[in-house]
Amino acid sequence: MPAEFDHMVLGINDLERGIAFVEERAGVRAVFGGVHPGRGTQNALLSLGTRRYLEIVAPDPKQTVTPWVPGLPEMHEPRLVAWAAHTDDIAALARKAIAAGFSIEGPADGSRARPDGKVLHWKSFRLADDRGGLLPFFIEWSRDSVHPSVDAPSGCQLERFLAAAPQPDKLAAEYRNLGVEIATMRAEKTQLCARIAGPKGEFELTS
Q1: Which of 8, 99, 100, 201 could disulfide-link 83, Cβ–Cβ 3.0 to 4.6 Å?
Q2: Helix (H) or strand (E) holding 150
Q3: Residue 116 lies in a domain
C-alpha cells in the first residue's frame, strides 16, 4: 500500500449509478461531496480508513464545460480513472518531478464547497502524461481543511492498491522517480487494481 496514498477516483457517467454500484458491493453508501466548478464534475465520497478515501466522479449536468476526466460522459461502467498521493510540500515535490524529467501541470490552487457550505482548499499538480491514470497526481491539503476521509461515511478499508502492467519493472521505475512506493505486478493488461473490505465483504475496483 503506498504510504502516500490519498484517494482514488472512480469514474462513471451518472453519479447516482456510481453510488449505487459501490453501495451494492460495500454495504456503505457514499455521500454527495459537492461539485468542481470549472471542471465539469461532481462527486460522492466514501472513507477507506485514516487519510484514505474513494471519490466517485461523474459529469455535473449544471456545468457546460467538458469534464476533466477524458471520456467521462461515455463511461457507462465505473472504473478507476486516477489516484492521488498526498504531500506536505507540493512545491518541493513539483521540483523533484521536473528534475526527474516529468512535464507537469501546476501546482495550482483548488477548492470545493461541501453541501454544508464549508469550503475545502488544496494545491495540486498533475503529470502532463500520467500513463492513462496509472501515475498519480499530487495534492497538498490546506491545514484549515478537514480531510474528506474524516467525515465521509465509514465502514470500509482499503486492503490492497497496486498497478499491473506487461512491463512492471519499467512502471516501478517511474513510480520511484516520483518518490512513490507502490507494488507492481506483471499482467497482460495495464491497470490499477484496488481491493476494498466493507460490511458485505471484499470487492475489487480496476481501471
Answers
A1: 8
A2: helix 148-151
A3: yes
